[in-house]
Amino acid sequence: AANKYEQRQSDPRGNSYGEYRNMKQDKLDQQLSSAKQSELFKDLLIMLNGRLEPSASYLRQLIGQHGGQVVFQYTSGVTHMICQNLSASKFNIFSKRKIPIMYPKWVLMCVEQQKLIDTNDFIIQEIAEKLDIQQQTQISPIFQISQLNQSQFLEQQKQTEEEKQVLQLIESTQTTALVSSVLQPLNISQLSQLSPLSGTSPQAFYNVNRQVPQPQENTVQRYHESSRLHQLTQFKLNAQEFLIKNPPYGPKPTDTARPLFIHIDIDCFFCQASFLKLPTSKQQQLHGYPLAVSSNIKNASNSTADISSCNYTARRLGVHNGMWVSQAVQKCPNLQLLEYDFDFYNKLSLQFYDILRQFSSDIMPISCDEAYLKLSGIYTQQEDIKIIKQKIYSQLQLSTTIGLGENLIQARIATKLAKPNGFMFLNKEVFQQVIKDKQVDFLPQIGFKITEELKNMNIFTVEDLQNADIKLLRENFGEVKGQNLLNEANGVDFLLFQPIQNLLKQKSLQVSKNFNVRISQISVFKQLVFELLQELNQRSTDRQLKLNKLSITVNVAAANNKQFMKKMGCGVCNQVRSTIFIHKKCDQCVEELVDSVVNKIKMEDVRGVDVMGFVGEVKNIVQSKELGQNAQKKVEFWEKLQQQSQNTAEKQEIISCDDYFDALQQIDDQDVANALRKVFSAQCLCRGNLEEAFKLGIDGVEDMFEDKWRWL
DNA sequence: CTAGTGTGGTAGC
DNA sequence: GATCGCTACCACACTAG
Length: 712
Description:
The protein has 712 residues and is of the alpha/beta class. It has 32 helices and 16 strands. Among the domains are: 214 residues, BRCT domain (Rossmann fold), CATH 3.40.50.10190; 113 residues, DNA polymerase, Y-family, little finger domain (Dna Ligase, domain 1), CATH 3.30.1490; 89 residues. Helix 19 links the parallel strand 11 and strand 12.
């Protein structure tokens, strides 16, 4: 397979694969325009997103034949968006811009009927409903818990009208989730039934499609769509976003002498969710079998696909997460493999958090299916807490495990011990009892490397760790880590409970591809970096983060690269990194970024690339050495400005004010005064709501500036 | 000593 | 023909000044 891929990369018809692709594209475009059949899509710019059925290349061809234009990335002027799956954030972007989102079926049906069908009939239902849930949740009646006494709250949990409404709400969405396969685009045979008048048989189109090579754009995006680890991180971010927009409204924990925490985790989340997606008959058939979620593969006994989640039957038979499918079926020949359904996982995750919102106002999300809750003093009975489990089960059919403890680590360990479908309370004494004989890697934060290191120190069990010499631990692991290890072993928290409302601004973001990367030409490498940067740009824009620094990491095959390697994986690699400062959109930095590493690597050894962006707080930007020797004065100026706007709503705006940012970038070291004048004018004039600026006019602004100037 | 940069480890399924 | 090895964040070693 690798050989074939490389042959394609060095196709003799072009100097590089990219050029070859362009030639091919031109040729294709010519063919298409010559085969133009109608002007149906004239003046439309249609964006194709993600994996499509029929395929993107086929749709492109079809749209081209009928006079339309196609793009694969969002650009201004896009009139329609075609997709099957779409993240909530992207959905928001398109719906905000009032760009209709349609299934590919729309294109086919327009062509069939030779008219532009009303887009309202096609806007993706499932996603629209997901958005509806969020809106409804926001306006749904909120329990005024603080005004209720404790028993009233618990009573309300069981009985109130609001409760019924919430239940109905979630039940209705759940039905949608379970039948969502109904909403998938129609297949070809269904289509021909719908449009018997068609002149050209859809089947014919479909066959043409088979001969058109798949376009190579969006390799990063396509890859991410089926990468479980990518999805997993996005789900977590989605959950955080959801909680910020829909704050928890449960009872407010009071400062009691003895706070309680729960740790809640959905048991083998992906596995349960994928199971729920099966038809009932299949579910009955698989009942009691060992199950695992993995990419759908034909040759399980040879596959190096990862098991991403497996049920507890499978675990008892020796299967575990992260194992290769081939190893798993060797241990457990009856293992039944289930398919991923990432959209469904995401949906369940948000519903999970929607339920948790009722139970505490202090929630700390850990991942898409796992959170800590700080409990108020009203939970006095274990039964009160089990209500959470029951609710999640009755509303989502997902079994969970809850650990209860006086601190986070106790709760966390309790969950681990009680899995699956369990509940456990640990206090200090019981914790000591249950933990002491466990291997050290039973504790969180102790992974492969630290286990190895501890082995070298003759520390194997938690009890060994408890008795270890703190000086030695600190020496070997550092001050903090060493102390943390000891704390963990003794059931003392080192993780701080941080409810969602304390969430700090994201500091960095990164986009990686370290799978199926085999490169022979620098142009291909550039294309990959470009795509990664585009994605980075997209994400930072979506999340309104301003990046001031970019870093690139290239994974380069090490001498023992092939050892333990997944077939298309990156194997053992050395990392080559480099960092640059940026003044422009990050997808315009390809050349600079590539240049910074290209001399240190051989293209044929590249096994993966990772670009990271650092969020530039204006304060940090001001401090960065890019601003040169007068940075200190500029910082002071900035801080003064901050103080000025301290008590106004403008503070936030000033932080994100692009003009301000740009002006700062242009500050001239030779003449700080002038530069700051520029900055300050820009600040005033670019923002209409700085009232004084308008009242005083230009001269007034100058005076104002002089006024602010004195402190410099 | 300080501030900035580079490196490595862990977590979720 | 393979089957999706991501990503945020922390701590600390190191370096320049």
